[in-house]
Amino acid sequence: MTNPLLQNNMLPAFSEILPEYVEPALNQVLEQAKLTVNDLMLNIKQPTWETLVLPMEELDASIDRVWSPVSHLNSVMNSDELRVAYNACLPKLSQFGTELGQNEDLYKAYKTLADSSAYTNLDVAQKKVIDNALRDFRLSGVELSQADRDQFKRISQSLTELTAKFEENLMDATHAWKKHVTDEKLLDGLPESTKEMAAQFAKREQLDGWLFTLDFPSYMPVMSYADNRDFREEMYTAFATKASDQGPNAGKWDNTEIMADILKLRHELAQLIGFDNHAERSLVTKMAQSPQQVLDFLNDLATRSKSIAEKEFVELKAFAKEIADMEDLEAWDVTYFSEKLRQQRYSISQEVLKPYFPENKVVMGLFSVVNKLYGLDIKERHDVDVWHKDVRFFDIFDANGELRGQFYLDLYARNHKRGGAWMDECLVRRQTANGIQTPVAFLTCNFSEPVGDKPALFTHD
Length: 461
Description:
The protein contains 16 helices and nine strands.
């Protein structure tokens, strides 16, 4: 069978991507990329946008076309087999990226272009691409001695592997902890929708009663509504101690040493290329001008917020004392009594509002706002290969009916999916030999899934 990662499809064939295809596909595109760079450096006479930058963008795109769907699947449909394939590729990607960033001939070609008259005729965006490339060469250690370059490579590879292990431990620790409940009394205070979802989780694992996990849609309602304080404490402790040397799975997926190693290596890498610390190196590609500017902003924010937060916490403690005769609030009590206080003051709760925010109305309402603000029409397609039955795909059209972008929408939390919410690139918008490539994004969330035949319900916030 042809490797689906090497087919020149407009969109990834997710249902055909198997772990055994990953490493061979990456090996092939990396080898071709090396040959392309060597050929480019041998034959280029006068670097221009067309003879240097566009071929390098095409090279990057060929690697991204293989790695982007693999990296995404590792986050949203993780498995032992995919994880092995993914981790086998990380050192190769790290080595290739560092060697490319330390390629002196390529660096000189970009410098020649930046110093040429052709550069002055480029538009702002093109100049920015070249300036960023030169910056990234320096951040990759191109100006270091050979010994320091080798050290840079070793540190970069170690950081890549440590970061991947950190994420694996966090995912494994999150999905390993489960609370199976058979006594309904323990669920006092929980909304019906939460209990129905927990019953659905239990049924899926062929269990009686209810099943709770550390995924946010399961965790947060317990913190907000569960009357049983011990239940809240148990959930909070498990959530707050994930992947650490504390809590119910202490030491099993412990990230303590990994975090220390990452911090140490980041510091070493930053100093190797002339920065005092990792914060300085990190800000080179960001808007803030210095670590001190960031600290000043945060300290100012804390100064402005602290007195208000302290006042609100005193009020919350008084409220907890009044209704529950509780002297000291623990971390697992704060969200619970905050919700009770909101209900008393405003006669409203997020749970009461949820029926007004079913998934389809929220999503379509969002698209309607986008249309009013920007004149864009967002239309769903059902003929696109996706990685899970709940994933949806949309086209974005401008007022003239021209396709301007596309995106995958993966809304619900599930096993083997990383927590949180994020956007990532599937395909970037760029100039190709055939015209402008349509950009495609991954939009990933971890909302509560539908329960039974009911639609998924969102909270107002």
